[in-house]
Write a structure and sequence with these properties.
This is Transporter substrate-binding domain-containing protein. It comes from Anoxynatronum sibiricum. Its main location: other. With about 300 residues, this protein is of the alpha/beta class. Helices cover about 40% and strands about 25% of the residues. Helix 4 packs across helix 11 and helix 9 packs parallel to helix 11. The chain is globular, with a radius of gyration of 39 Å.
C-alpha cells in the first residue's frame, strides 16, 4: 500500500516537473503583421517655369516679358498719340513684340531715361533692353548682348539756318555740342570733336532738341535715322553734312546668366533678318514718326 502510494507521489512529482519546464520556455514570437505597402507620394505638377527652366521659365510663368526702353529715339522707339492715348512705338518695339510672341507671353513696356536702363536690367526690374543700344566693351562687363540687328551712320543735327556753316568737323571748333548721356554719341562728342567749346550731355534727346532750338547748344550728335526723323518733324532743324562714321551695330541687352533667353532672342532676330522684316519695321516706323511725334 505504501509502495503504491510512493509510486503515485513520484508520478505526481514528475508531472509537476514537466509542467514547470514547459512554462519556463519562452513563448514563440507572434507572427509579424503584414502591412500594405505605402503608395508612392504624388509628384506635384510642374509649373511653367519648372517645365521650361531658366529665365524663359520665369518669364512664361509670369505670362509677360518686361521691356526697358527710352522712347525719345525715333524711329527706334518714340511716343505717338493713338485714339487719345499715348503709346510707345517704333521698330525696336516691333522687334520686342516678335520676341514676346515667340516666347508666348505678353510684352510690358517700361519707358525710362536711357542712362538708367542698364542699372534697371542688372537689378532685375526689367527683362531685356531694346533701345538702339550699341554693345560697347564697358557695357559688356555688366550685361550680355544679342547679335547686332541694325547698323547706322552717326550724324549731326543742327538748326537749319546753320547747316551750311556747320558742314565739317573742323567747323565745330568752339561750338556747343550736345549728346545723350551714357551713349556712343557722348563718346563721339568727347573724342571726335576735341576743339568743342562746350559739351552738354542730357538724359533725354527731346531736352537736347529744345536746347538746340533755343540756341543753348549748336548741334547734337545723333545716329542718322534719329537725326533725320527730328529734322523731318521740324523745319527749324536739319541734318548737317558731317558724318562720324558708322556704328558697330545695335543689339539687345540681357542680364548675365540668362543664356537661354539670349539664345531665344537671337533666334527671333535671325528669323526677322532672314525674312527682311526689320527693314519693313524701320520703313513703317519712319513713316509713322514723320506723321506724328510727341515732344
Amino acid at each position: 500500500m505504501l509502495k503504491r502510494k510512493g509510486k503515485m507521489m513520484l508520478a505526481v512529482l514528475v508531472a509537476m516537473l514537466m509542467l514547470l519546464t514547459a512554462c519556463s520556455q519562452p513563448a514563440p514570437a507572434p507572427a509579424a503583421a503584414t502591412e500594405p505597402a505605402e503608395a508612392p507620394a504624388e509628384t506635384p505638377a510642374e509649373t511653367p517655369a519648372e517645365a521650361a527652366g531658366g529665365k524663359i521659365g520665369d518669364v512664361q510663368a509670369a505670362g509677360k516679358i518686361v521691356l526697358g526702353t527710352s522712347a525719345d529715339y525715333p524711329p527706334y522707339e518714340f511716343i505717338v498719340e493713338v485714339d487719345g492715348n499715348l503709346e510707345v512705338v517704333g521698330f525696336d518695339i516691333e522687334i520686342a513684340r516678335e520676341i514676346a510672341n515667340d516666347l508666348g507671353v505678353e510684352l510690358e513696356i517700361r519707358d525710362m531715361d536711357f542712362d538708367g536702363l542698364l542699372a534697371a536690367l542688372v537689378a532685375g526690374n526689367i527683362d531685356f533692353i531694346v533701345a538702339g543700344m550699341v554693345p560697347t566693351e564697358v557695357r559688356k562687363e555688366s550685361v550680355d548682348f544679342s547679335v547686332p540687328y541694325y547698323r547706322a551712320e552717326q550724324r549731326f543735327l543742327v538748326r537749319a539756318a546753320d547747316a551750311a556753316e556747320l558742314s565739317t568737323i573742323e567747323a565745330l571748333a568752339g561750338k556747343r555740342i550736345g549728346a545723350q548721356i551714357s551713349t556712343v554719341q557722348e563718346t563721339i562728342a568727347t573724342e571726335q570733336i576735341p576743339d568743342a567749346g562746350e559739351l552738354r550731355f542730357l538724359s533725354r534727346i527731346n531736352d537736347l532738341v529744345m536746347d538746340l532750338k533755343s540756341d543753348r547748344i549748336d548741334g547734337i550728335v545723333l545716329v542718322g535715322p534719329v537725326a533725320a526723323s527730328y529734322a523731318k518733324a521740324d523745319a527749324q532743324l536739319a541734318v548737317s553734312d558731317i558724318s562720324f562714321g558708322q556704328e558697330d551695330g545695335v543689339a539687345i541687352a540681357i542680364a548675365k546668366g540668362n543664356d537661354d533667353l539670349t539664345e531665344a532672342i537671337n533666334a527671333t532676330l535671325e528669323r526677322l533678318m532672314a525674312d527682311d522684316l526689320i527693314t519693313q519695321f524701320i520703313a513703317e516706323a519712319t513713316a509713322l514718326a514723320d506723321e506724328q511725334q510727341v515732344e
